Amino acid sequence: MRLRISHLTRYDYAEPVSLCHNIVHLKPRQSERQRCLSSSLRIDPGPAVNREHEDFFGNRVNYFSIQQAHDALEVTAVSEVEVGLQDLPEPPATPAWEVARDCLHQHRKPAMNASRIFTLASPLVPLNVAARDYAAGSFTRGRPILEAGIDLMGRIFREFAYDPHFTSIATPVAEVMAHRRGVCQDFAHLAIAGLRGLGLAARYVSGYLETLPPPGQAKLQGSDASHAWFAIMIPDLGWVDFDPTNDLIPGEQHITTAVGRDYHDVTPMHGIFYGGGGHELTVAVDVNRVEG
Known about the structure:
Layout: E1 2-27, E2 34-44, E3 49-54, E4 60-66, E5 70-83, H1 97-106, H2 110-115, H3 129-136, H4 145-159, E6 161-162, H5 173-179, E7 181-182, H6 184-197, E8 202-209, E9 226-234, E10 238-242, E11 254-260, H7 263-266, E12 269-275, E13 279-289
Parallel strand pairs: 6-7
Antiparallel strand pairs: 1-4, 1-5, 1-12, 1-13, 2-5, 3-4, 8-9, 8-11, 9-10
């Protein structure tokens, strides 16, 4: 499936900003499941410095600096991607999760070596006993790892309420666990905390999800949003994604922008600015199919 993504971020400042430095993760990754056909970044006002590089996790990162006074900043990323399905075996045919855990530490294959960082605690995903015990309810002794991951994903979907007003970027995993509510970012962090507590490699995935309007209704432009889910490293399969917000294995409607240890590594846009006073933030995202 071919999809076009438009992501607009606009800051309107109460007072002029004299200087700003920003880092953005807005250009889709290349992977076996996803091919980025084109991607452009439009910045207004024009930056004095604008560079792109690949970070430690293989994400496409843009850094830019605006060195003139401005009272508004608008960044628009437009990308076109081709997304396919990951070829997965039947869940019971995958190895026991303990085997996958042991492979991370016993094998010296490049994929295993690179994955070990995702077994460690990170700034927004500290090791949490309650989250580990919750994940253990799915990862019972000898259970195939893909089957266990699907079960964990489904339990989060059923047992946690989606509540966009309850949490913020800084809400701890422990609070999400205690109140059983949050948003996609929180559900991903919760699952990752539990999986890492069991010794597995789990990473945070940031991107977009194509949403479709009810039958007979037109799609509202700008109504889509960024999305997040988690992935588990499975021997001989690589990284397998799980979307607990929607209880499904990500497929052709999921576009991956960046991966990392947690949200902190893949923030769509963050930076510092001098002046400005207060500001109003506007974000509009559109994900549309490209016919033909």
